[in-house]
Backbone:
């Protein structure tokens, strides 16, 4: 070590240095890591690493998965670099969240995105006692006939909506679906104002869903998170509890994608 390096190091804060080393290791691997893996990779004494990790977790720079105990980058470190945040995949950040949502609600949980006039399921976790027909990753359903699809349309302007549906008549119209393009637009505006959708037997009889939008760092609708409830109509006693759990999951994923808004602003989407 030369004199210049020695001069630089004498002003360094050891605890800060160790914390940054841990963050760089998590960032470099782009995956969840156990405490033992972190200690092995950063070559820091266990007691020191434990204190650094506890501090970083408390400050929101790393997060610990509630089920597996594994660590990954947290909201605050992601917010430091929007270019990195913009490159994150909604599945990458959302999978642990929907696993926790499934555990909280006992319901199968999903993340979906829109591809043209299709809803595509990109992540899913099934409830242990799930009896309803399962959807798999990659399953496509028509946007206009699903509660998830309606929520995905809430980010569109009228012009973009009419480009998506240039004809007045909607394709493959079936009982329970909106009668025409204008009816769908009105439903979407109501959903947009409300900020969520509770669809009871909307697409398949005997299955209800609660759907919230996911926002990226630009405030755009990136996808949706939902739960499937295996009942025709959600009991009033469960409705608010389940809705709150889905809303919280949506906020967590949106924050991980860099969204800077607040839950109360959900009904004011642009």
Residues:
């Amino acid at each position: 070590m030369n004199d210049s390096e020695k001069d630089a190091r004498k002003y360094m804060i050891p605890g800060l240095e160790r914390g940054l080393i841990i963050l760089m290791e998590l960032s470099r691997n782009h995956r969840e890591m156990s405490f033992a893996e972190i200690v092995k990779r950063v070559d820091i004494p266990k007691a020191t690493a434990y204190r650094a990790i506890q501090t970083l977790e408390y400050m929101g720079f790393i997060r610990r998965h509630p089920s597996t105990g594994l660590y990954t980058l947290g909201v605050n470190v992601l917010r430091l670099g929007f270019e990195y945040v913009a490159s994150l995949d909604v599945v990458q950040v959302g999978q642990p969240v929907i696993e926790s949502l499934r555990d909280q609600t006992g319901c199968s949980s999903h993340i979906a995105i829109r591809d043209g006039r299709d809803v595509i399921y990109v992540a899913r976790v099934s409830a242990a006692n799930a009896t309803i027909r399962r959807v798999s990753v990659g399953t496509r359903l028509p946007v206009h006939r699903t509660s998830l699809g309606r929520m995905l349309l809430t980010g569109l302007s009228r012009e973009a909506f009419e480009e998506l549906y240039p004809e007045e008549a909607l394709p493959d119209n079936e009982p329970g679906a909106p009668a025409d393009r204008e009816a769908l637009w009105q439903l979407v505006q109501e959903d947009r104002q409300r900020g969520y959708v509770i669809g009871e037997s909307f697409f398949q009889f005997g299955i209800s869903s609660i759907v919230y939008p996911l926002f990226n760092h630009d405030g755009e609708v990136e996808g949706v998170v939902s739960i499937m409830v295996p009942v025709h109509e959600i009991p009033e006693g469960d409705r608010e509890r389940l809705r709150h759990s889905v809303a919280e999951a949506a906020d967590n994923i949106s924050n991980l994608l860099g969204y800077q808004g607040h839950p109360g602003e959900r009904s004011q989407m642009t």
Observations:
- The mean pLDDT is 80.
